[in-house]
Amino acid sequence: MFKKYIPIAFLALLLAACNNQQNRFSTDIAIPVTIQEVKLSSIQEVFTATGTIVSEYESKLNTQSSGEYYLQTNPRTGKKYKMGDAVKQGDVVIKIEDREYENNVNINGAKIDLDISKMEFEKQTALYEKGGVTLREKVNGEKQWVSAQKNYENALLQLAKMKVVAPFDGVITNLPYFSQGVRIEQNKEVLQIMSYKEMVMDLMLPESQITKVSLNQKAWITNYSIPDDTLSGKLNQISPAIDIESRTFKGRLAIDNQEAKLRPGMFVKADIIVDKKDSVVVIPKDAILVRADGKAVFVARDETARERKITTGMENNGMIEVTKGLQPEERLIIKGFETLKDRSKIKVMNK
Question: Domain 47-54+195-276 class?
Fold first, then answer.
């Protein structure tokens, strides 16, 4: 019976020895890690929204009178205006001609009447000062001069209806084709102009952000077609009312687009900076272990890893604020920490 148990006991001793050897090996081996010195930095809390941008200034222009259509020459190109051309405020893009209409306006006659009535009033004024006419005659002369002024101004306004003029600096985005000299009717759409320098974007913000957003908060604007360029904007309008169905409220971003990198109708992403902290501990979010009892990181102390329980705060773009548990100048383990335990031996690979 005694001989029967000798092999079993020997096997148990052998297994125990192997296990002790393995534990001693796992304790003694140094795990390679990469470290990063903990530093104070700045971090921003960002709310991200997407939407379609539109031009802040856009105008669709119709003819104000009927007549013959004549597209004008762009003085900057020497050619007829076309879609995509830049225009300046006051540029005459299209003229409408109607000889009968112009004759009825009689701008030359209105100007002559104005000049005559002005001379007559000046004459009446001089005579009145010498006692040659009564006050009534002088006032009547002034009345005729004022009436002539209004008639002349009205004539100018009537003639102005024969021109389609750019109301602001911008770009021609639509120019329906009409043959030169063809007769078109009044109230016909003939021109569309947009300004690209300033764009706007309406967005719906969740109710949870209503205490965080405020006027003039900065935003960064990106579009997939220009991934290497980020434009700036600011939140310039906020609605105080919350939609009861979507639990959102409306905001409007003004986007600086001086170089015309964005176009009306583009789909963009807006990162609105709702909060910012300076001189705080900021580390890579990937360096944190999330466990049932909270968050932890490992720091290197000599050749040993020490576990630290931490409390976090603001996070953005893969970085996160540590509000408790880490100090500046400590050596944070950012790679190779996955299998570490407190007091594990380590080998720093980037000394």
Answer: mainly beta
